[in-house]
Amino acid sequence: MKKIVIIFLSIITLSSAMFLGGCSMLNSRSEKENENSQMIKLVESKEAEKAFYHWFTYVDPQAFKKEGFIQSYEIDRNSISKNPMSGIDFDIIINGDSDFIISCNINKNSDGEIESTSATYSDKLSQALER
C-alpha cells in the first residue's frame, strides 16, 4: 500500500512539473512575440524614419528626386532583430531590389529620442551610387 501511495504522489508531482514547464514555455514564446511586435512598431514609426532618413541623402543627395538613384525604400521586417550591444538592427531595401540594402541600427539616446547609430551599404548599392 505504501508503495502505491509513493508511485501515485510521484506521478502527480511529475505531471505538475510538466504542466508548469509547458505553461512557462508558452509564456516565454508570447513574451518574445510581444517584443518582436514592439520592435517592428518602433522601426516603422515616424520618429525612427526621421532618425535613419539622413542615410539616404548622405549617400544620394538627390534621393527621392527625379535625378536621384534612391526612389523608394521598404523595411525588411524579417531582418529586424535586437542588437546584443544595444538598439535594434534592421535592413532597408532600396528601390524594391534586395541587392540594394542599407543595414541600420537605431537606439534611444539619453533623452529618450530615437537616433540611428550606424549604417552599412551592400556592395551592389555602393557600386550603383558611385556611377
Q: How would you describe this structure to a colleague?
A:
It contains 3 helices and 4 strands. It has helices at 2-43, 46-59, 123-130, and strands spanning 73-82, 88-94, 97-108, 114-121. 49% of the residues lie in helices and 28% in strands. Strands 1-2-3-4 form a 4-stranded antiparallel β-sheet. The protein is α+β, with helices and mostly antiparallel strands and 131 residues long. The model has no long low-confidence stretch (mean pLDDT 83). It is elongated, with a radius of gyration of 24 Å.
Brief summary:
By secondary structure, the protein is of the alpha+beta class. It is built from 3 helices and 4 strands, in the order H-H-E-E-E-E-H.
Give the tags.
131 residues, alpha+beta, four-stranded antiparallel β-sheet, 49% helix, single chain
Rg, rounded, reads: 24 Å
**Total of helices:** 3
Please state the average pLDDT score.
Answer: 83
| Share of residues in strands | 25-35%
Quaternary state reads single chain
Number of strands: 4
Largest sheet: 4 strands, antiparallel
Order of helices and strands: HHEEEEH
Q: For the record, give the distance between the C-alpha atoms at the N and C termini, rounded to a whole number.
A: 87 Å
The low-confidence runs, each spanning 5 or more residues with pLDDT under 50, are none
Query: Which class best fits the helix and strand makeup?
Result: alpha+beta
Helicity range: 40-55%
